């Protein structure tokens, strides 16, 4: 067994032990248990795309130490798409504890990972490091002695490549409906104005019950980006009454929708348990 495989095995054992202690006893067939099983399986997958999608969905789980540890582990993955997803997820879950690890990710040799880490640091108010990255990308030069990547990436000296990064790669890590520029670009080929996906995201905190029903309906939209955005909005809406229809998306044909649904179920079921415990006092 190689060193990397050994480290991975130790991590899995430690995580499962911690998870078993942290989780209350529950039916193994419960939606929450099933949701964790889906996400853990995805995050440990040998397929980079599956792992990246699973880790990206963890961004919906704020205040969850297990999710944060999985995302931090993803920062060390061999595949840069997984590292990018991990950096993005840590910002979305507001993991201030992970700031040092995100700062370390600024030295990644892949610009998409650097951009994702910079964006997350900006969200976490660690602005100085993020601004150094943006300066490097804008000028191709180091800002005093604070430059992070300009000295090691020839790409920054190529105006054409820099323009491409700024338009596609860089924008991709400012989350669009929790998915990114890649999703918008996919949708753009079919619909130049993805207003419905944007609307779903913006409706997350509208207290009108009719909006909750509209979001549930949108989880069945023919476009997977709209479905994913609706599921994420329901998670951010924090209404456990919507847990059951979201759990049905475990079987969506698109894996990004499925993993968003798994994260949403974990979040909503946690809120439901907290309310039940409060009412029982």
Descriptive terms for the model:
281 residues, mainly alpha, 15 helices, 64% helix
Protein architecture, described:
The chain has 281 residues and is mostly helical. Helices cover 64% and strands 0% of the residues. The protein contains 15 helices and no strands. The chain has helices at 3-22, 31-43, 48-57, 65-74, 80-92, 99-105, 111-123, 127-139, 159-169, 181-188, 195-202, 209-218, 224-237, 243-247, 255-279. Helix 7 (111-123) runs antiparallel to helix 8 (127-139). The radius of gyration is 19 Å and the shape is globular.
Q: What class, by secondary structure content?
A: mainly alpha
Globally, the shape reads globular
* Total helical segments: 15
Q: Level of helix content?
A: 55-70%
Radius of gyration: 19 Å
Low-confidence stretches: 165-179
What is the rounded distance between the termini?
Answer: 51 Å
- Report mean pLDDT, rounded to a whole number: 77
The biggest sheet amounts to: none
Please provide the count of β strands: 0
SS strand fraction = under 5%
Order of helix and strand elements from N to C terminus: HHHHHHHHHHHHHHH
Secondary structure: elements and pairs:
Layout: H1 3-22, H2 31-43, H3 48-57, H4 65-74, H5 80-92, H6 99-105, H7 111-123, H8 127-139, H9 159-169, H10 181-188, H11 195-202, H12 209-218, H13 224-237, H14 243-247, H15 255-279
